[in-house]
Specification:
Blueprint lengths: L16 E5 L2 E4 L4 E4 L2 H4 L8 H13 L10 H13 L4 E5 L2 H17 L9 E5 L8 H5 L4 H4 L9 E4 L4 H7 L4 E6 L2 E2 L5 E2 L2 H14 L2 E5 L23 E4 L10 E5 L20 H14 L2 H22 L6 E7 L2 E6 L3 H12 L1 E2 L1 E3 L3 E4 L7 H16 L8
Parallel strand pairs: 3-15, 5-6, 5-7, 7-10, 10-11
Antiparallel strand pairs: 1-2, 2-3, 4-12, 8-9, 11-12, 13-14, 14-17, 16-17
Bound molecules: pyridoxal-5'-phosphate.
Cofactor: pyridoxal 5'-phosphate
InterPro entries: AcOrn/SuccOrn_fam, Aminotrans_3, Aminotrans_3_PPA_site, Class-III_PLP-dep_AT, PyrdxlP-dep_Trfase, PyrdxlP-dep_Trfase_major, PyrdxlP-dep_Trfase_small
Family: Belongs to the class-III pyridoxal-phosphate-dependent aminotransferase family.
C-alpha cells in the first residue's frame, strides 16, 4: 500500500512538534521554534497557559460530554457571556469554523424562509479569494477553484463579487439576494482588511433591502485584532457572525452568533450537533474569555500590534527587493512580498526556526500568540532579520 495511514491531504513539512512552551514549539528532535503562527490564529494564549489547562483538566474530571438533549449550565454561561460582550442575542455552538459558517448560512437562509420572510431570497453574495472552510457549503461560498476541483457539483446559492468593491456589490443585489457573507479581514486570502466604506456600505445595503450581513470572523475574531471582534472597529454590527479558531485557545470549537431577528428561523429541531457546546469545550471557552475579554488585555494586543507593525515597516525598508508592504490589524499582520512568499516562509522555518504562515497574494502571515512579550518580539525580529539577510530568492522554475 502506498497511501499513508494519515490521509495524505496535507503536504506536511518536516517539523514534528511534540511539546509547547508558552510561545515556542519543541519538535521530536528537541529543536525549539518561535511560534508566530499559533496553529493559524488558534493558540492565542500560547501553549502552556495555566488557566486554560486547569479549566480543561477540572472539567475533564467533572463531566466531559453530555447530549444536547439535556440542559446545559455550561453552555448557558458561555453563551450569556458572548451575548453580553457582542451584538448577539443568541449563540449556537459548533465544533469548528466551517460548521460555524454553515450554521450562519443556514440561519441567513432560514431568516428569509420564515413565515414572515421572502423565500425567493436564497442567494448569498460572497467575495473573491474568500476562505470559509472545507465543507461543501463553505467551498461553494468561495470562488477559489483550487478548492472545488474534484468535488463538483457545488451547492447553489452563492454569487461571487470582487472583495472590497462596494459598487459591484450594490449592482449584484437582486430579488434573490439573501445577504452578504464576508471576512472583515481576509485571512487565507492574504491578511486583506476590508475598507471602512465597504463594510458600512454593506451594512447600509442590508438595512435598505432587509438582507443578512453575515461576518466570517473565524480567523480575525476573539481579540486577534485588538477588539473582541473586528466588526467593532468598523462601527457596524452584523446580523450573524461565525467565530472559531481562537475561541477555544486550542480546544476545537466554534460558535454562530446572531441577533434575535436574524435567528428567527432557527427554531426547535431545525439544527443541531452531537458535540456542539459540550461541557469540555465550554470550559475551554470560559477560560479563554476570562483571559482575553477585558479592556486591559485588548489594549495590550493593540499596543503590541502597533509596535510590531512600526518595526516591520522600518525593517522592510532595508529589503526593498523582498517586501512591499505591511497590512492587517492588531496581531493579525501580513507582510506582502514582491517575490513568492511561500519559499521565504519555508526558509524562516527551516533555517531560522521561526514559524509564520504563508497566505494568498504572496503574503507572509504573522499571527503570534496574543500573550507574547518583549522577549518574543525581539526574538522574532532577530530571526526575521537574519532570515531576510541570508535569503537567496529561488530561480523561477
Ligand atoms: C479557518 C477558517 C475557517 C474554517 O475553520 P475550520 O475550523 O478549519 O473549519 C473559516 N473561515 C475562516 C475565515 C477561516 O480562517
Amino acid at each position: 500500500m502506498a497511501i499513508t495511514p494519515l490521509m495524505p491531504v496535507y503536504p506536511r513539512c518536516g517539523v514534528r512538534p511534540v511539546r509547547g512552551e508558552h510561545c515556542h514549539l519543541i519538535d521530536e528532535d528537541g529543536i525549539r521554534y518561535l511560534d508566530f503562527a499559533s496553529g493559524i490564529a488558534v493558540n492565542l494564549l500560547g501553549h502552556s497557559h495555566p488557566g486554560l489547562i486547569g479549566a480543561i483538566q477540572n472539567q475533564a474530571e467533572t463531566l466531559m460530554h453530555v447530549s444536547n438533549l439535556y440542559g446545559s449550565p455550561q453552555g448557558e454561561q458561555l453563551a450569556a457571556r458572548l451575548v453580553e460582550k457582542t451584538f448577539a442575542d443568541t449563540v449556537f455552538f459548533t465544533n469548528s469554523g466551517a460548521e460555524a459558517v454553515e450554521a450562519a448560512i443556514k440561519a441567513a437562509r432560514a431568516y428569509h424562509q420564515h413565515a414572515d420572510g421572502n423565500p425567493k431570497r436564497t442567494e448569498l453574495i460572497t467575495f473573491t479569494n474568500a476562505f470559509h472552510g472545507r465543507t461543501m457549503a463553505t467551498i461553494s461560498a468561495s470562488n477559489q477553484e483550487k478548492m472545488h476541483k474534484g468535488f463538483l457539483p457545488l451547492l447553489e446559492g452563492f454569487q461571487y463579487c470582487e472583495f472590497d468593491n462596494l459598487e459591484m456589490a450594490k449592482s449584484m443585489v437582486g430579488p434573490k439576494t439573501a445577504g452578504f457573507l464576508v471576512e472583515p479581514i481576509q485571512g487565507e486570502g492574504g491578511i486583506r482588511p476590508a475598507s471602512d466604506a465597504f463594510m458600512t456600505g454593506l451594512r447600509a445595503l442590508c438595512d435598505e433591502h432587509d438582507l443578512m450581513l453575515v461576518l466570517d470572523e473565524v480567523q480575525c475574531g476573539v481579540a486577534r485584532t485588538g477588539t473582541l471582534y473586528a466588526y467593532e472597529q468598523y462601527g457596524i454590527v452584523p446580523d450573524i457572525l461565525a467565530t472559531a479558531k481562537g475561541i477555544g485557545g486550542g480546544f476545537p470549537f466554534g460558535a454562530t452568533l446572531a441577533t434575535e431577528k436574524a435567528a428567527r428561523g432557527m427554531t426547535f429541531g431545525t439544527h443541531g450537533s452531537t458535540y456542539g457546546g459540550n461541557p469540555l469545550a465550554m470550559a475551554a471557552g470560559m477560560a479563554v474569555m476570562d483571559a482575553v475579554a477585558n479592556d486591559e488585555f485588548m489594549a495590550e494586543v493593540r499596543e503590541k500590534g502597533e509596535r510590531i507593525r512600526a518595526r516591520l515597516e522600518q525593517f522592510i525598508g532595508n529589503y526593498p527587493d523582498l517586501f512591499e508592504l505591511v497590512r492587517g490589524k492588531g496581531l493579525m499582520l501580513g507582510i506582502k512580498m514582491k517575490v513568492e512568499s511561500r519559499p521565504f516562509f519555508v526558509h524562516l522555518r527551516d533555517h531560522h526556526k521561526l514559524l509564520t504562515v504563508a497566505a494568498g497574494d504572496n503574503t507572509l502571515r504573522v499571527l503570534p500568540p496574543l500573550v507574547i512579550g518583549d522577549a518574543e518580539i525581539d526574538e522574532f525580529f532577530e530571526k526575521l532579520s537574519a532570515g531576510a539577510s541570508d535569503y537567496v530568492i529561488p530561480e523561477a522554475a
